[in-house]
């Protein structure tokens, strides 16, 4: 087949019970294998006859539209959820670890202990040893048992456990001053880092990670990327972070309409190959031979690019083996995001002078000043979650600064996407058509439906009530509103929150093409990398403001050292 392939693959569902499997059918050692897995909820079939295997040395990114079953898939692999049919098998003696999602489950334990608990057997041995050695009437039998435990403890590198746990915590940005604290004393973001260290601890043979970059800062994400790029065992990860998927993944597992397709390469390869296959299929004027040549050129180009990155030596070898039949179509639908300013702005966009603001006793903005010129696409960073949001709220007149002032250029018009958009939908008894109509000078239903259609609200969907929308649907509605505004300055506070990868990609592409000025915050590395031409980090003692690419900003050791010093002042 030219545009599709048949692969021994189906869908991933949960195991009725783990079975042991030492060797896959092709003779390679198989770390975890899914066979004939199907799962139904009520009358909805989520997965059907999934067959796929995951082998050592590879990192598999699990992708799919919201609701496709990515997290369910991980739960099946971990044994937390049982499928209706089929099973999941792991190689005998292998240990599986999963990133825990309950941030309060370990509140009664110290941080360092919580990490070590990631290796359940090692932790059990440590407790058993303590009980034995605390006995007042230590017998010969106890001595024999203690000897057995000490031997197993040593085999599991127990004597290095605390040191190994400390290295993981330090790498993720949890300083030694926090290692002996109780988990209940940590902030939400720090708890996430500790739970991630717990999953990584002890070099598990199979590592399951569901959205591991959530709540991590860019330094921690970079450390995790480096860690996984050097990881020799099997990693299966769900993530909306395209940069992360591109850095660490050797394969993508695409879950779509109850089926799962395994594709060699990272996220960009999957996305671009599926888009190219779709375009070529729809191009009736091209002959089959021309299509084959274009697909071959695409594979060669991606393979050559892969060889340029440190991690991708093995990926290049994999891509070199790809044939035309391995390029497959995707049924995914992408929104259309495009912004057309009503008028062009002048050179002067915004002047901010000595702004300060305290929120809940924390001074999140401290005497900051900067100017924005036409064409600037400025990303704002801060270790305080409130800093960027507070700045945008002041600039949009939602709250007042304690000190200082700001002035918009007279030729500017602003449109704002807040991080919390609930105020636009709570208590609103409008259909989507009527909801969007209130923000438009053109009131005709066909016109309004056109903008909703761009964001994939079609058929009867524009008639449903606005207040019942999911988080992702609300954000897509907000983008319809922004596109209607005709503004030449956009302020976007974490605009990819709640969106699936298809919507994130569409928003990203639309904003790359935007000719106006942008001020935005984001936790999406690729989003920032491909849009920003200027980076401003807000610290407690002022701003670090540089007109440079985002990657250059992060990799400049002098800049990062200066920023660290500014946080300590």
Helix proportion: 25-40%
Please report the total strand number as a whole number.
19
Q: Trace the largest sheet across and list its strands.
A: 6-7-8-4-9-10
CATH third-tier fold name of the largest domain: Rossmann fold
Number of helices: 19
Commentary on this structure:
The model is unreliable at 1-27 (pLDDT under 50). The protein is built from 19 helices and 19 strands. The N and C termini lie far apart (63 Å). It has helices spanning 70-78, 111-116, 120-133, 140-155, 161-171, 188-200, 218-229, 242-248, 267-282, 288-306, 313-320, 385-395, 432-437, 445-454, 471-485, 501-513, 525-531, 550-555, 557-568, and strands spanning 18-20, 32-41, 44-54, 59-63, 85-90, 96-98, 206-210, 234-238, 251-256, 259-264, 348-359, 362-373, 377-382, 403-408, 414-417, 489-493, 517-521, 534-539, 542-546. With 569 residues, it is of the alpha/beta class. β18 (534-539) and β19 form a beta hairpin.
Question: Which features would summarize this protein structure in a list?
Answer:
19 helices; 569 residues; alpha/beta; 6-stranded mixed beta sheet; Rossmann fold; 37% helix
Set down the secondary structure blueprint.
Blueprint (H helix, E strand, L loop, with lengths): L17 E3 L11 E10 L2 E11 L4 E5 L6 H9 L6 E6 L5 E3 L12 H6 L3 H14 L6 H16 L5 H11 L16 H13 L5 E5 L7 H12 L4 E5 L3 H7 L2 E6 L2 E6 L2 H16 L5 H19 L6 H8 L27 E12 L2 E12 L3 E6 L2 H11 L7 E6 L5 E4 L14 H6 L7 H10 L16 H15 L3 E5 L7 H13 L3 E5 L3 H7 L2 E6 L2 E5 L3 H6 L1 H12 L1
Parallel strand pairs: 1-5, 4-8, 4-9, 6-7, 7-8, 13-17, 13-18, 15-16, 16-17
Antiparallel strand pairs: 2-3, 2-5, 9-10, 11-12, 11-14, 18-19
